[in-house]
Design a protein that fits this description.
The two termini are 15 Å apart. Strands 2, 3, 6, 9, 10, 11, 12 and 13 form an 8-stranded antiparallel beta sheet that branches. This protein has 2 domains: 211 residues, no CATH class; 90 residues. The chain is built from 9 helices and 14 strands. Helix 5 packs parallel to helix 9. By secondary structure, it is α+β, with helices and mostly antiparallel strands.
Protein backbone atom coordinates (compact mmCIF):
# COMPACT_ATOMS: atom_id res chain seq x y z
CA UNK A 1 0.00 0.00 0.00
CA UNK A 2 1.39 3.38 -1.03
CA UNK A 3 0.75 6.65 0.84
CA UNK A 4 -1.34 9.24 -0.99
CA UNK A 5 -2.03 11.84 1.69
CA UNK A 6 1.28 13.70 1.99
CA UNK A 7 0.11 16.78 3.87
CA UNK A 8 -2.17 17.85 6.70
CA UNK A 9 -3.28 21.26 8.01
CA UNK A 10 -1.84 23.07 11.03
CA UNK A 11 -4.52 24.95 12.96
CA UNK A 12 -3.88 28.43 14.33
CA UNK A 13 -5.74 30.83 16.59
CA UNK A 14 -8.56 32.78 14.93
CA UNK A 15 -8.31 30.59 11.83
CA UNK A 16 -11.42 30.15 9.71
CA UNK A 17 -12.04 26.40 9.56
CA UNK A 18 -13.64 24.79 6.54
CA UNK A 19 -14.80 21.25 5.86
CA UNK A 20 -11.72 20.78 3.68
CA UNK A 21 -9.38 21.34 6.64
CA UNK A 22 -11.19 18.82 8.83
CA UNK A 23 -11.47 16.23 6.07
CA UNK A 24 -7.75 16.55 5.30
CA UNK A 25 -6.94 15.73 8.93
CA UNK A 26 -9.22 12.70 8.87
CA UNK A 27 -7.89 11.48 5.52
CA UNK A 28 -4.28 11.77 6.66
CA UNK A 29 -4.79 9.98 9.99
CA UNK A 30 -7.05 7.34 8.46
CA UNK A 31 -4.49 6.53 5.79
CA UNK A 32 -1.66 6.38 8.34
CA UNK A 33 -3.62 3.85 10.38
CA UNK A 34 -4.39 1.72 7.33
CA UNK A 35 -0.76 1.92 6.19
CA UNK A 36 0.31 0.61 9.59
CA UNK A 37 -1.98 -2.40 9.31
CA UNK A 38 -1.23 -3.31 5.69
CA UNK A 39 2.52 -2.56 5.58
CA UNK A 40 3.70 -3.25 9.13
CA UNK A 41 1.34 -6.03 10.28
CA UNK A 42 0.02 -7.90 7.25
CA UNK A 43 -3.02 -8.55 5.10
CA UNK A 44 -5.51 -11.39 4.84
CA UNK A 45 -7.44 -13.44 7.39
CA UNK A 46 -5.79 -13.13 10.79
CA UNK A 47 -7.93 -15.67 12.64
CA UNK A 48 -11.28 -17.44 12.39
CA UNK A 49 -13.69 -16.64 9.55
CA UNK A 50 -13.95 -20.34 8.76
CA UNK A 51 -16.96 -21.51 6.77
CA UNK A 52 -18.74 -24.85 6.94
CA UNK A 53 -21.73 -26.03 4.94
CA UNK A 54 -24.40 -28.02 6.78
CA UNK A 55 -27.03 -29.86 4.75
CA UNK A 56 -30.14 -31.27 6.40
CA UNK A 57 -32.47 -32.65 3.77
CA UNK A 58 -33.28 -29.73 1.48
CA UNK A 59 -32.16 -27.16 4.07
CA UNK A 60 -28.67 -25.70 3.84
CA UNK A 61 -26.79 -23.54 6.33
CA UNK A 62 -23.44 -21.82 5.95
CA UNK A 63 -21.76 -21.56 9.34
CA UNK A 64 -19.33 -18.64 9.58
CA UNK A 65 -17.09 -18.54 12.64
CA UNK A 66 -16.13 -15.30 14.33
CA UNK A 67 -12.82 -13.81 13.32
CA UNK A 68 -11.06 -10.88 11.74
CA UNK A 69 -8.81 -9.92 8.88
CA UNK A 70 -7.15 -6.98 7.17
CA UNK A 71 -7.76 -5.98 3.56
CA UNK A 72 -4.96 -4.92 1.24
CA UNK A 73 -6.03 -1.29 1.74
CA UNK A 74 -5.60 -1.67 5.51
CA UNK A 75 -9.29 -1.88 6.44
CA UNK A 76 -10.03 -4.23 9.31
CA UNK A 77 -12.99 -6.58 8.82
CA UNK A 78 -14.35 -8.11 12.03
CA UNK A 79 -17.13 -10.64 12.53
CA UNK A 80 -17.55 -10.65 16.33
CA UNK A 81 -19.96 -13.60 16.59
CA UNK A 82 -20.50 -16.99 14.96
CA UNK A 83 -23.17 -16.79 12.27
CA UNK A 84 -25.57 -19.35 10.82
CA UNK A 85 -26.50 -18.07 7.36
CA UNK A 86 -29.58 -19.68 5.85
CA UNK A 87 -30.91 -17.33 3.16
CA UNK A 88 -29.85 -14.80 0.56
CA UNK A 89 -30.96 -12.03 -1.75
CA UNK A 90 -29.33 -10.13 -4.61
CA UNK A 91 -26.93 -7.42 -3.52
CA UNK A 92 -26.28 -4.08 -5.21
CA UNK A 93 -23.34 -1.82 -4.37
CA UNK A 94 -24.10 1.63 -2.94
CA UNK A 95 -23.97 4.32 -5.60
CA UNK A 96 -22.20 6.92 -3.47
CA UNK A 97 -19.07 4.92 -2.51
CA UNK A 98 -17.95 2.85 -5.49
CA UNK A 99 -15.96 -0.40 -5.43
CA UNK A 100 -14.39 -1.04 -8.87
CA UNK A 101 -13.12 -4.50 -7.87
CA UNK A 102 -16.71 -5.79 -8.05
CA UNK A 103 -17.25 -4.40 -11.54
CA UNK A 104 -16.18 -5.21 -15.08
CA UNK A 105 -16.16 -3.32 -18.35
CA UNK A 106 -18.93 -4.11 -20.83
CA UNK A 107 -18.87 -2.09 -24.05
CA UNK A 108 -17.48 0.90 -22.20
CA UNK A 109 -19.92 0.63 -19.28
CA UNK A 110 -18.97 -0.41 -15.75
CA UNK A 111 -21.21 -3.33 -14.77
CA UNK A 112 -21.37 -4.98 -11.35
CA UNK A 113 -20.70 -8.68 -11.02
CA UNK A 114 -23.70 -10.59 -9.73
CA UNK A 115 -23.57 -10.76 -5.93
CA UNK A 116 -25.82 -12.20 -3.24
CA UNK A 117 -25.95 -11.14 0.41
CA UNK A 118 -26.26 -13.88 3.05
CA UNK A 119 -28.58 -13.59 6.06
CA UNK A 120 -29.30 -15.50 9.28
CA UNK A 121 -32.76 -16.90 9.98
CA UNK A 122 -35.63 -14.46 10.26
CA UNK A 123 -34.67 -12.02 7.51
CA UNK A 124 -37.76 -11.13 5.43
CA UNK A 125 -37.91 -11.18 1.62
CA UNK A 126 -35.02 -13.61 1.21
CA UNK A 127 -34.58 -17.00 -0.47
CA UNK A 128 -33.55 -20.09 1.49
CA UNK A 129 -30.17 -21.51 0.44
CA UNK A 130 -31.54 -24.98 -0.24
CA UNK A 131 -34.45 -23.82 -2.38
CA UNK A 132 -32.48 -23.85 -5.65
CA UNK A 133 -30.69 -27.11 -6.41
CA UNK A 134 -26.88 -26.78 -6.58
CA UNK A 135 -27.06 -23.01 -6.06
CA UNK A 136 -23.90 -23.04 -3.91
CA UNK A 137 -21.87 -25.35 -6.16
CA UNK A 138 -20.24 -22.51 -8.13
CA UNK A 139 -20.16 -19.87 -5.38
CA UNK A 140 -17.50 -18.48 -3.06
CA UNK A 141 -18.16 -16.73 0.25
CA UNK A 142 -16.54 -13.31 0.63
CA UNK A 143 -16.64 -10.72 3.39
CA UNK A 144 -17.17 -7.17 2.16
CA UNK A 145 -16.78 -3.86 3.97
CA UNK A 146 -19.60 -1.72 2.62
CA UNK A 147 -19.23 2.06 2.91
CA UNK A 148 -22.47 4.00 2.52
CA UNK A 149 -22.45 7.80 2.43
CA UNK A 150 -25.69 9.34 3.69
CA UNK A 151 -26.64 12.99 4.01
CA UNK A 152 -27.74 14.22 7.46
CA UNK A 153 -29.57 17.30 6.24
CA UNK A 154 -33.18 17.18 7.39
CA UNK A 155 -35.06 20.43 6.94
CA UNK A 156 -37.83 21.35 9.35
CA UNK A 157 -39.93 24.54 9.49
CA UNK A 158 -37.59 25.96 12.15
CA UNK A 159 -34.18 24.50 11.21
CA UNK A 160 -32.63 23.72 7.87
CA UNK A 161 -28.97 23.66 8.88
CA UNK A 162 -26.68 21.46 6.81
CA UNK A 163 -25.40 18.76 9.16
CA UNK A 164 -23.02 17.25 6.64
CA UNK A 165 -22.78 13.59 5.65
CA UNK A 166 -22.11 10.37 7.51
CA UNK A 167 -20.37 7.25 6.21
CA UNK A 168 -21.63 3.97 7.66
CA UNK A 169 -19.25 0.99 7.51
CA UNK A 170 -20.94 -2.43 7.51
CA UNK A 171 -19.33 -5.86 7.14
CA UNK A 172 -21.48 -8.06 4.89
CA UNK A 173 -21.09 -11.76 3.95
CA UNK A 174 -21.65 -12.15 0.21
CA UNK A 175 -21.65 -14.85 -2.45
CA UNK A 176 -19.98 -14.51 -5.84
CA UNK A 177 -19.63 -16.95 -8.73
CA UNK A 178 -16.27 -18.72 -9.01
CA UNK A 179 -15.77 -17.60 -12.61
CA UNK A 180 -16.24 -13.94 -11.74
CA UNK A 181 -13.98 -14.21 -8.71
CA UNK A 182 -11.25 -15.74 -10.87
CA UNK A 183 -11.48 -12.71 -13.15
CA UNK A 184 -11.08 -10.44 -10.12
CA UNK A 185 -8.06 -12.42 -8.91
CA UNK A 186 -6.49 -12.36 -12.35
CA UNK A 187 -7.04 -8.63 -12.70
CA UNK A 188 -5.57 -7.96 -9.27
CA UNK A 189 -2.48 -9.98 -10.14
CA UNK A 190 -2.26 -8.35 -13.58
CA UNK A 191 -2.48 -11.72 -15.30
CA UNK A 192 -5.38 -11.13 -17.65
CA UNK A 193 -9.00 -12.20 -17.34
CA UNK A 194 -8.60 -15.24 -19.58
CA UNK A 195 -6.71 -17.12 -16.86
CA UNK A 196 -8.32 -19.98 -14.97
CA UNK A 197 -7.88 -21.12 -11.38
CA UNK A 198 -5.14 -23.55 -12.45
CA UNK A 199 -3.24 -20.75 -14.20
CA UNK A 200 -3.48 -18.57 -11.11
CA UNK A 201 -2.10 -21.38 -8.95
CA UNK A 202 0.78 -21.85 -11.39
CA UNK A 203 1.49 -18.11 -11.38
CA UNK A 204 1.84 -18.07 -7.60
CA UNK A 205 4.09 -21.12 -7.52
CA UNK A 206 6.24 -19.85 -10.39
CA UNK A 207 7.21 -16.91 -8.21
CA UNK A 208 8.64 -19.44 -5.80
CA UNK A 209 10.38 -21.10 -8.78
CA UNK A 210 9.04 -24.50 -7.78
CA UNK A 211 7.88 -26.73 -10.65
CA UNK A 212 4.44 -28.26 -10.83
CA UNK A 213 4.69 -32.07 -10.60
CA UNK A 214 1.94 -34.46 -11.62
CA UNK A 215 2.14 -38.26 -11.61
CA UNK A 216 1.52 -39.54 -15.16
CA UNK A 217 -1.22 -42.12 -15.54
CA UNK A 218 -0.29 -45.76 -15.93
CA UNK A 219 -0.53 -47.28 -19.42
CA UNK A 220 -2.12 -44.28 -21.15
CA UNK A 221 -2.65 -44.70 -24.04
CA UNK A 222 -3.51 -48.36 -23.57
CA UNK A 223 -0.88 -50.79 -24.88
CA UNK A 224 -3.02 -53.87 -24.12
CA UNK A 225 -0.52 -55.58 -21.79
CA UNK A 226 -0.95 -59.34 -21.58
CA UNK A 227 2.10 -60.86 -19.95
CA UNK A 228 3.75 -59.83 -16.70
CA UNK A 229 6.60 -58.37 -18.73
CA UNK A 230 4.12 -56.15 -20.58
CA UNK A 231 2.65 -54.94 -17.28
CA UNK A 232 6.07 -54.14 -15.81
CA UNK A 233 7.16 -52.46 -19.04
CA UNK A 234 4.15 -50.15 -18.81
CA UNK A 235 5.14 -49.22 -15.24
CA UNK A 236 8.67 -48.51 -16.39
CA UNK A 237 7.39 -46.33 -19.25
CA UNK A 238 5.75 -43.99 -16.74
CA UNK A 239 9.21 -43.16 -15.39
CA UNK A 240 11.29 -43.38 -18.55
CA UNK A 241 9.01 -41.42 -20.90
CA UNK A 242 8.52 -38.56 -18.43
CA UNK A 243 11.92 -38.52 -16.67
CA UNK A 244 9.90 -38.70 -13.48
CA UNK A 245 12.76 -39.52 -11.12
CA UNK A 246 15.00 -36.74 -12.46
CA UNK A 247 12.26 -34.11 -12.40
CA UNK A 248 11.18 -35.08 -8.89
CA UNK A 249 14.74 -34.93 -7.59
CA UNK A 250 15.29 -31.51 -9.16
CA UNK A 251 12.02 -30.22 -7.66
CA UNK A 252 12.91 -31.46 -4.17
CA UNK A 253 16.35 -29.86 -4.37
CA UNK A 254 14.80 -26.58 -5.54
CA UNK A 255 12.37 -26.75 -2.61
CA UNK A 256 15.21 -27.20 -0.16
CA UNK A 257 17.08 -24.22 -1.60
CA UNK A 258 13.95 -22.04 -1.54
CA UNK A 259 13.24 -22.71 2.14
CA UNK A 260 16.74 -23.45 3.40
CA UNK A 261 16.69 -20.59 5.96
CA UNK A 262 13.75 -22.29 7.68
CA UNK A 263 15.13 -25.85 7.77
CA UNK A 264 18.89 -25.35 7.90
CA UNK A 265 19.12 -26.29 11.59
CA UNK A 266 17.50 -29.67 10.92
CA UNK A 267 19.02 -30.17 7.46
CA UNK A 268 22.32 -28.26 7.21
CA UNK A 269 22.90 -29.75 3.74
CA UNK A 270 20.66 -30.83 0.87
CA UNK A 271 19.00 -34.13 1.94
CA UNK A 272 18.19 -34.92 -1.69
CA UNK A 273 21.74 -34.81 -3.01
CA UNK A 274 21.76 -38.60 -3.57
CA UNK A 275 18.23 -38.77 -4.99
CA UNK A 276 19.38 -39.35 -8.56
CA UNK A 277 21.91 -41.93 -7.40
CA UNK A 278 19.19 -43.90 -5.61
CA UNK A 279 16.37 -43.57 -8.13
CA UNK A 280 17.96 -42.50 -11.41
CA UNK A 281 17.78 -46.05 -12.77
CA UNK A 282 14.00 -45.65 -13.04
CA UNK A 283 14.44 -43.17 -15.90
CA UNK A 284 16.96 -45.39 -17.65
CA UNK A 285 17.41 -49.12 -17.93
CA UNK A 286 17.04 -51.26 -14.78
CA UNK A 287 20.14 -53.27 -13.96
CA UNK A 288 18.61 -56.01 -11.81
CA UNK A 289 15.49 -58.13 -11.62
CA UNK A 290 14.63 -56.69 -8.19
CA UNK A 291 14.47 -53.19 -9.68
CA UNK A 292 12.01 -54.44 -12.30
CA UNK A 293 9.98 -56.49 -9.84
CA UNK A 294 9.37 -53.52 -7.56
CA UNK A 295 8.43 -51.00 -10.27
CA UNK A 296 4.74 -50.83 -9.15
CA UNK A 297 5.89 -50.06 -5.60
CA UNK A 298 8.27 -47.37 -6.84
CA UNK A 299 5.39 -45.74 -8.71
CA UNK A 300 3.24 -45.80 -5.58
CA UNK A 301 6.13 -44.32 -3.59
CA UNK A 302 6.53 -41.48 -6.09
CA UNK A 303 2.79 -40.84 -5.89
CA UNK A 304 3.11 -40.28 -2.12
CA UNK A 305 6.28 -38.24 -2.62
CA UNK A 306 4.69 -35.89 -5.14
CA UNK A 307 1.60 -35.39 -2.98
CA UNK A 308 3.80 -34.55 0.01
CA UNK A 309 5.84 -32.15 -2.13
CA UNK A 310 2.69 -30.41 -3.35
CA UNK A 311 1.30 -30.10 0.19
CA UNK A 312 4.61 -28.79 1.52
CA UNK A 313 5.02 -26.05 -1.06
CA UNK A 314 1.50 -24.77 -0.37
CA UNK A 315 2.04 -24.83 3.38
CA UNK A 316 5.39 -23.14 2.89
CA UNK A 317 3.73 -20.47 0.77
CA UNK A 318 1.85 -19.50 3.92
CA UNK A 319 5.19 -18.56 5.48
CA UNK A 320 5.88 -16.03 2.77
CA UNK A 321 5.72 -12.34 3.61
CA UNK A 322 5.08 -9.24 1.53
CA UNK A 323 6.74 -5.85 1.72
CA UNK A 324 4.27 -3.06 0.90
CA UNK A 325 1.64 -5.24 -0.86
CA UNK A 326 -0.41 -3.52 -3.58
CA UNK A 327 -3.55 -1.85 -2.30
CA UNK A 328 -5.54 -3.02 -5.34
CA UNK A 329 -5.41 -6.74 -4.43
CA UNK A 330 -8.52 -6.80 -2.21
CA UNK A 331 -9.07 -3.26 -0.87
CA UNK A 332 -12.33 -3.87 1.05
CA UNK A 333 -13.09 -7.58 0.80
CA UNK A 334 -11.73 -10.93 1.96
CA UNK A 335 -12.23 -14.29 0.28
CA UNK A 336 -13.36 -16.86 2.87
CA UNK A 337 -13.57 -19.95 0.67
CA UNK A 338 -16.07 -22.31 -0.92
CA UNK A 339 -19.04 -23.72 1.00
CA UNK A 340 -18.10 -27.15 -0.40
CA UNK A 341 -14.32 -27.15 -1.10
CA UNK A 342 -14.44 -30.71 -2.42
CA UNK A 343 -16.00 -29.52 -5.68
CA UNK A 344 -12.76 -27.95 -7.00
CA UNK A 345 -9.17 -29.14 -7.26
CA UNK A 346 -7.52 -26.08 -5.68
CA UNK A 347 -9.84 -24.61 -3.02
CA UNK A 348 -6.96 -22.78 -1.33
CA UNK A 349 -6.81 -20.02 -3.94
CA UNK A 350 -10.31 -18.88 -2.92
CA UNK A 351 -9.28 -17.90 0.60
CA UNK A 352 -7.15 -14.95 1.65
CA UNK A 353 -4.78 -16.56 4.13
CA UNK A 354 -2.74 -14.15 6.22
CA UNK A 355 0.30 -12.67 4.49
CA UNK A 356 2.47 -11.08 7.12
CA UNK A 357 4.78 -8.11 6.84
CA UNK A 358 8.57 -8.62 7.02
CA UNK A 359 8.58 -6.21 9.97
Amino acid sequence: MKPIQDKYPIFEANQVLTSRHLNEVFDYLNEQERLTRANLIGIGIECGLEIRLETNGSDQTIHLSKGCGVSSAGYILIEPEDLALVSYQKYTLPLDVDYPQFKYDSAGDSVQYQLWELFPAGEPNTILLGKLNKFLDDKVVILFLELKNEGLRNCSPNNCDDKGNEVTATVKPLLIEIGNLEKMIAKANKLGTEYTATDLESALLSRMKLPDLRLPRYNVPNTAPISSNDVLAAFHAVFQNNKLATNTGDALTATYKAFMPLVIETFPSDPFVDFDKNFGFLDGIPTSTSQVRFLPYYLDFFDDLIQAYDEFRWKAAGLMCACCPPEELFPRHLMLGLPDPGLVTSPGIYRHDFLSSPA
